[in-house]
Amino acid sequence: MTTIAAKDKPTKLTPEEYFAWEEQQLEKHELIDGEVYAMSGGSKNHSLISVRLITLFANHLEGSSCETANSDLRVNIAETNNYTYPDISITCDERDRATTQYITYPCLIVEVLSKTTEAYDRGGKFRMYQNNPVLKDYLLVSSTAIEIDLYHKNDAGQWMIVNYGEGDTIELKSINLSFSIEQVYRGLNLTPEP
């Protein structure tokens, strides 16, 4: 569930007002600079890819102090009152154990791309996520081609991009995991979105 839609509410909300208001809504909304934005559903491939990655990550991290979350968990953009719903987030930070409605310190965020969200996920959303002092890996996964882009923050604090394609092995240093790109795409019908 990642598509940004038109603004739903004309007045600016505080985080507290947003949490209370969203509890009464049928769909999820992101809060950016006091404004709420409705999130719509994704494609079949979007869902299948998300489930495969969540399963892969959760199995890898079983028994650790890290937690793997799906798109139902908000991420608070560090040092702001902005809240997003990434497709997948992983936190290993003890500070996130004290919150129940969101996390603030994920080390890995994954967005499965769609035609309507790709520009936002690569642009404005990534700029917000870069403010997180703990985030190491930002993974952008195509739902229409065997293509994954990894934005990785190196030890010097610089963001580097690695483009993966067919036959490649993805390396996520944030959670010490390597896996074949084919594990993500096996058996999927990769046709462009209409």
Strand content: 25-35%
Give the biggest beta sheet. 6 strands, mixed
CATH topology tier name: tt1808, chain A
Given the helix and strand composition, which structural class is it?
Answer: alpha+beta
β-strand number: 14
Total tally of structural domains: 1
> Could you say which overall geometry the principal axes of the C-alpha atoms support?
globular
> Helix-strand pattern, N to C?
EHEEHEEEEEEHHEEEEEH
Helix content: 10-25%
Going by CATH, what is the homologous superfamily? tt1808, chain A
CATH A-level architecture: Alpha-Beta Complex
The low-pLDDT segments are 1-9
Keywords: Endonuclease, Hydrolase, Nuclease
Organism: Desertifilum tharense IPPAS B-1220
Protein name: Uma2 family endonuclease
General description of the model:
With 194 residues, the chain is α+β, with helices and mostly antiparallel strands. It has a single domain (42-185), classed as tt1808, chain A (Alpha-Beta Complex), CATH 3.90.1570. Helix content is 22%, strand content 31%. The chain contains 5 helices and 14 strands. It has helices at residues 15-23, 44-61, 118-122, 124-129, 182-185, and strands spanning 3-7, 29-32, 35-40, 67-69, 74-76, 83-84, 88-91, 102-103, 106-112, 137-141, 148-153, 159-164, 169-172, 177-180. The strands form 4 sheets. A 6-stranded mixed β-sheet has the order 4-7-9-10-11-12, with helices on one face. It has a 3-stranded antiparallel β-sheet with strand order 1-3-2. It has a 3-stranded mixed β-sheet with strand order 6-5-8, with no helix packed on it. The two termini are 18 Å apart. The relative contact order is 0.14.
